[in-house]
Amino acid sequence: MTPSGPMSIDDGSDVNTSRSYLASPARRSNCSTSRVTLLVIVTSALTLTAGLLLGRFAIPRDDDDESGVFLPGAPERLMESGDSDVAQKILDGIEAGKIEENLRLITAKPHIAGRQADFELVDLLKARFQEYGLQVQVTPYDVLLSYPSDTVPNSVRLLDGDREVIYDAVADESDLSEQPGVVRAFHAYSPAGLVEAPLVFAGYGRVEDFDWLRSQNINVTGHVVIVKYGKMFRGDKVDIAHANGALGVIMYADPAEYTGMGSGDTRVYPDTWWLPPDGVQRGTIFTGDGDPLTPGYPANNLAYRPNEADVKLPKIPSHPIGYGAAEKIMKHLGGMEVPGDSDWQGGMNITYRTGPGFLNTSWRIQLNVTSHNQRAKAENVIGIIKGEIEPDRYVLLGNHRDAWIYGALDPSTGTAAMLEIARVMGKLVQTGEWKPRRSIMFCSWGAEEYALAGSTEWVEQYVATLRERAVAYINMDTAVVGNDTLRLGAVPLMHKVAYEAAKKVENPNPAERAAGRTSVYDTWLHIEPWKDDNGQSKGVPRIDDLGSGSDFAPLLQKVGIPALDLWYSFDPALYNVQWFALYHTEYEVFDIYKSQFDRDFKCLQAVARVSAEVTRSLADSLLLPLGLSDYSQGLHDILHTLDNDYGAVLRKNLLNFGLELSS
Ligand SMILES: *[C@@H]1O[C@H](CO)[C@@H](O)[C@H](O)[C@H]1NC(C)=O
Ligand SMILES: *[C@@H]1O[C@H](CO)[C@@H](O)[C@H](O)[C@H]1NC(C)=O
Ligand SMILES: *[C@@H]1O[C@H](CO)[C@@H](O)[C@H](O)[C@H]1NC(C)=O
Ligand SMILES: *[C@@H]1O[C@H](CO)[C@@H](O)[C@H](O)[C@H]1NC(C)=O
Ligand SMILES: *[C@@H]1O[C@H](CO)[C@@H](O)[C@H](O)[C@H]1NC(C)=O
Ligand SMILES: [Zn+2]
């Protein structure tokens, strides 16, 4: 380390005078040789002194009492990792029964963002954090949300040539839709609008599906399309349909993917976790991030807000229905049969046809979306345990609080677990058994279901501070969707800390323990051994890259905070699905979680323990447990993938695309 001239000059007042003198352009031109010589001598002397001082104190010496200590005289505990007994105390302290109580309480009422039940949960979290001895901050934002009409529900109807209603999808809506607080099926941010047109089945609604329709001379312009959920974000389906000229979109979850029929199991909720015909997946179809009215800036009182019409919101009405209703509509579709051996087929008891229009060509589909956008309050509740030695370094653990309906899995499993971690850590701090080195922040995000609004606005407000101070973020959204194994998405920097934590946590499955796989890590490695591109085992369990579907996205992508997302998952060999089938439906309730996913809450307890240990390790280690060589390897792998998938295209189209792969 070489002290720079101006830095050492700043310290002496005499020399300071010469600095301002030198800075004056009028005098500089007259500067005499002797003055310059004097300055060189003074600067050299100061540099030499600084060098000697650094040599004496900053470089460890064997004959020194403070050997290895960077700051002489500083208390030794500043230079050590935290008390390692604390790790076990935290793991032991986390109780499955307490997590179950939390989940029951949080899911007692539907709690969509921006409405009364969500505000009540804000109060609950605040009170709990305070009870656990945490400092609490609530950060409110004024964001644009979207709700169905209270008086005229959204509707999908089949009309005959005289515009008489032959079938109304409301007939197959779940009875639960009538319960107070249960938001009826809708797609958030869909524009309102009434459309009557012939129907076209457009598969999954991907670009290639529309291309295929075009290749069959099926023109969707001026038509309503019906598409299956799956393969991609629902909002993109609406954008793609619009780009292809469709006037409106109807979306449904096909039983081929949302029931157990593939394995011959015809049972559905409440006997199993499979989707019944009237279960409907809600969700946003906005393809932007955060509050649509304040992109890039926090949605507070000072924010500039353009007109809604000038904001990039979805352009055509879209509405979700159950497969019960979809079957009653699609069985009348005309046109050609879809290709036999293709993913255009599905599990309904009909002949799948493309349209356009119905077997009776005078029939039309009528879609009436009556939802509206509305500004509402989205609050984040932040509970803080202040660090003892590096209070201005933040380890963040978070999850959203809002749910489309009861949210028993998404997101409340995560919130129930996070509260238990806060309780246990808070208690250890309160009793003086633990003083974490760095600060820990428990973040309960608002309005995540609306394009990650709460976390995005918070990041937009505090981006400068977070960039300097945030150490890492652990996301706990939907913490259990099965009882098979832990699964993770994370940046490579955080792989190591996750592996180490998973090794310390007892396996929740007695059969696995009996088979000798005593830790969460053992089963994870057994089920998900990670192989590289050449099929070579890496000797560790697989960790996915992070996508964008939850609150880690703004923290990672807008600030660069290393992030990790974790959950307990089902066995993909047993369940050939991407995600749990009841996702975002009215049937995501406490009882189904308890009866079908995690009877004794041992899986959720295990996820809570892994998260807690990752958090503790990040908060307490002297050196941050982030894997730098994993990071370099990860970048290398990504580059390799990019080159494999797009190298030829990029080299052809970009002037400066040169990939330097060393192996
Ligand atoms: C089409 O439906 C109308 C009723 O809307 C009916 O009168 C007519 O006979 C039907 N046409 C065919 C070919 O089934
Ligand atoms: C599709 O239909 C629209 C409206 O009828 C028409 O303007 C357009 O030219 C058609 N596209 C093709 C490729 O036929
Ligand atoms: C499928 O539909 C056909 C014709 O409507 C009916 O006869 C059959 O019973 C249905 N099968 C099932 C499994 O519902
Ligand atoms: C469509 O919705 C509007 C409210 O946005 C309502 O006034 C109208 O009656 C509805 N039309 C039909 C045919 O359902
Ligand atoms: C895991 O879940 C499945 C499906 O609900 C259940 O049949 C099985 O018994 C569960 N296993 C354990 C160890 O709880
Ligand atoms: Zn969620």
Automatic annotation (TrEMBL):
Stored Pfam families: PA, Peptidase_M28
Membrane spanning residue stretches: 36-59
Residue span, PA domain: 195-283
Keywords for this protein: Membrane, Transmembrane, Transmembrane helix
Domain Peptidase M28 positions: 380-591
SUPFAM superfamilies: PA domain, Zn-dependent exopeptidases
Domain of life: Eukaryota
InterPro entries for this protein: PA_dom_sf, PA_domain, Peptidase_M28, Peptidase_M28B
Gene Ontology molecular function: carboxypeptidase activity
Name the record gives this protein: N-acetylated-alpha-linked acidic dipeptidase 2
Organism: Plakobranchus ocellatus
